[in-house]
Every structure is written in structure tokens, then in C-alpha cells.
Amino acid sequence: MTNRSAPRSRNTAVVGLQWGDEGKGKVVDLLTAEHDVIVRYNGGANAGHTVEVGGERYALHLIPSGILNPGKRNIIGNGVVVDPEKLLEEIDTLRARGVRIAENLQVSDRAHVVMPYHKEQDAALEEFLAQVASSERGSLAIGTTRRGIGPTYADKVQRSTAIRMGDLLEGDYLRDRLRVICRLRSAELKALGVSAAPLDPELLATRFAQLGERLRPHITDTVYALHDALAAGKSLLFEGANACLLDIDHGTYPYVTSSNCSSLGIPSGTGVPGGNIGRILGIMKAYTSRVGAGPFPTELLDETGSHIRERGREYGTTTGRPRRTGWLDLVAVKYSAMVCGATGVACTLFDVLTGFDKLKICTKYRLNDGSTTDRFLPDARTLAQVTPIYETFEGWDEEIREVATRSSLPPNAAKYIAFIEEYLGLPIEMIGVGPDRRHTLVSA
Ligand code: GDP
Ligand code: IMO
Ligand code: MG
Known about the structure:
Layout: E1 12-16, H1 24-31, E2 37-40, E3 49-53, E4 56-60, E5 73-76, E6 81-82, H2 84-96, E7 105-108, E8 112-113, H3 116-131, H4 149-158, H5 171-191, H6 201-215, E9 219-220, H7 222-231, E10 236-239, H8 265-270, E11 279-285, E12 288-290, H9 303-311, E13 324-326, E14 328-329, H10 330-340, E15 344-348, E16 358-366, E17 372-373, H11 380-383, E18 387-394, H12 411-424, E19 428-432, E20 440-442
Parallel strand pairs: 1-10, 1-11, 2-5, 2-10, 5-7, 6-8, 7-9, 11-15, 14-16, 15-19
Antiparallel strand pairs: 3-4, 12-13, 16-17, 16-18, 19-20
Helix pairs in contact: 3-4, 5-6
6-O-phosphoryl inosine monophosphate binds at residues 16, 19-21, 46-49, 142-145, 147, 149-150, 241-243, 246, 257-258, 291-292, 317.
């Protein structure tokens, strides 16, 4: 089932199989013990990964979730978009809590920089789209995190207006580029209705060169760093940000983020070929959540949805927004597992489902013409038209947080898990029964 032939079997990827917030941070933190280098390959500070250890709660946005484990290397790969101010803030906050950050954190010199104007563009475009919403079709706004993710990746693809981490270390080059970029950006922001004064390239260049100096000890060629680690027999753990259904190519476009957040983003986002990865662990909640706009076939807009939100503390780690909640959609998860090449699954937040009389799992969609399908439809307009078809399960009342093994789960809980495994045709290797590192049932 899993390809465990040495040496690639020692490298693992952790990827979200839904619309994000599946508990990737917790799983990465757990798996860090078995790996040497933890690597982020996509996204930026739109991610919010929570790790709870012994009553302490950490929210990580740019720094890999391996950072809490001493003695491990953490790498922010070339595919990530880095907001240097946010990164330094995160470093300072973690250091203040006693986490050591020195040569154990490396940032790619080729990672693209999120500049202040990217965040302004992101927010201004969202406001503009919300205002011009036609009542018939609704708003075109995506409900982004406003962290400047889309505009930064757009500049990366545009090339001539991009700035990379390595550029922050070259003061004159940075100033020259910013003189041109600021002229263009000031005009674009004005067109979007932003009335602020034109951007000042000299001030920005000075500020970002200073940020670059502070980050200089961490900025390096991470592609060679990763290949050197592989050559030295070290094992890598790739930490996906966002999730497969938010992938720019394979998600519910256009309600997605701007990077390849499925496992397919790993090779381009790190420079490590995919053949090096033997284990791809897909992370899924025992139900579904989504933040921001876009289709969500199993969404519950009633009391049940609110109950899941409260029990699961479903409020964004990055923006604090209440998350939309609904029943588990296995059509969607199976699609993501296929695209990501998942070799196994972790089912998280299972404890949240305690206390329901009945539980539902979506196994098919009904289309407008009355036909049914078990295939996902990764296009927002089409997916918005499907009706979920459910299997119903008996619930259980026992709290399961202190359950120590899978075989000790209440019988109805065990049936729910067995059904998921059977449907996906993949082993459930971990079950999350609470937020702490120790609240995890691991299959032997
Ligand atoms: P990520 O973005 O995938 O890392 O997930 P988030 O950290 O944004 O959201 C997951 C939330 O669920 C966090 O508040 C975690 O502390 C919490 N969590 C993770 N696993 C479990 C679990 O098994 N049970 C419960 N109750 N909470 C969990
Ligand atoms: P983690 O890593 C949940 C969503 C946003 C929005 C869309 C685009 O914590 O699972 P963006 O700011 O990226 O342009 O927003 O994608 N989104 C996430 N939702 N978890 C995330 O990350 C997300 N990253 C982006 O809410 O709908
Ligand atoms: Mg999150």
C-alpha cells in the first residue's frame, strides 16, 4: 500500500485534504520527532497552524511547525511568499516564549517577498469586488486573508515587478527596482480607489533593506541545503499550508488561494523531486470546514453547524473569522487524496463529533439533471449546483479525549472510522481526539 523502499520512504509530506485548518500543524509537530528537516513549500502568512503542547498553544504562520522541537532544522522553501515583518514578529514572539531560533531556521533566497502594497492591493481588490457585487450573481470577492498572497504570486509570475528575499540583501538593486515598481503600484492602487499618498520607494527600500539585514543569517540557497541534507541521509518532512481544495490548479477555482497547496507543489516549491517522498499523509477533519467564499455542498447553516463550530472552536487561527461548518464530504476528500497521492490519512477533530444523535457523511452528489456522481467537480460554478447524498450513522455519547487506542473507541465511533477507511481505500494512520500533541491515536 505505502511505498516504503529506502531511502525515499523516510521523507514524508503532510497535506490538507479539505479547505484548510485540518490540523496539519499538530500532525507536523508530532511527526517532527521522526524527521530531521521540516520544510514549508507554499503559501505564506495566510496559513495558521496551531500546535498545543502541555497546555501551551502556539499559532505558526510562516515558520514550520517543527520549530518547537529542539535540534531540528526548519526551512521556508522557495515556493513560499514571505512577509518579512510578519516573519520577524513570529521569530520574536516564539523567542519570547523560550523557543530557540538561530541557524535552525533557513529561508530561501528565492522566496518572494510580500510587500506592504501587496496587502493593500489584496484588501482594495476585495473591497472593490464586494462593492460592485451584482445582486443576482453575488460578490466576486474571495474572502481572502488579506495577507497579500494573491498579489505577491501575481508579481512572481509577472517577473519584472517581483522582489525576492535575496534582493533584500542588495540595497542598491532593491532601491532601483522599487523606484519603478512604486510608480506602477501607486497608479494601480489609485485605480482601485485607495486614496493614500503615492508609495515612497526610498523609504520602502531603506525599511526593507533593514529587515533583510535582520534576516540575513537565515537567508540562503535552500535548494542546495535540502539536497545536501538528503545526501547526508537526513529525512525531510514537508508541511503543506492551506489545502488541496484551495490549490490554484486543482481546487474550487476561483475560490482558492494562489499556490499549489496539494503535494504537487512540493517539487516546484522546494527543488526536491517528488520521487523522494515515500509517505504522503493526507489530513482530514472528521467533518468539514471552510473560511471565506466558495461552494461547500455539505455546509450546515443551522443549529448543527453552530454546534460543530463551538465544539470544534472553529474560528480562524489567522483572521479570527468564524469558519463555515458542515458534514464530512468524502467525495471531496477522495478526490484530494487522489490528486495528492495520499498513502494514508489522519482523521482529526474526531472528538468534536461526540454527542450527536445521528451523523452524516456525503458519499455522492446529485446533479441538476437528476443523475448522481461520486466524482468531485473542482469548478466553483458546477460544484455550487450539486446536492449531497448522505449515508447516516448512529452517534455516540462517550467523550473520547482520553481514549488511548483505536480499539477502545465506542463501537459507533469505530464504525464511522471504518467507513471512511473503506470508502477512501486508504489506512487511517492517526485519529485526533483532542488539540494536544498527546491527544492522538496512532495505528501501530
Ligand atoms: P491547520 O491550519 O491545518 O494547522 O489547522 P488549524 O490549527 O488552523 O486548526 C485546527 C484546530 O483544531 C486548532 O485549533 C487545533 O488546536 C485543533 N485541533 C487539531 N487536532 C484536533 C483534535 O483532534 N481535536 C480537537 N478538539 N482539536 C484539534
Ligand atoms: P491553513 O494552512 C483555511 C482561504 C481564505 C480564502 C482563500 C484565499 O491554516 O490551513 P488567500 O488569503 O490565500 O488569498 O485566501 O483561501 N485560505 C485558507 N483557509 N486555512 C488556510 O490555511 C487558508 N489559506 C487560505 O480563507 O477563502
Ligand atoms: Mg489553519
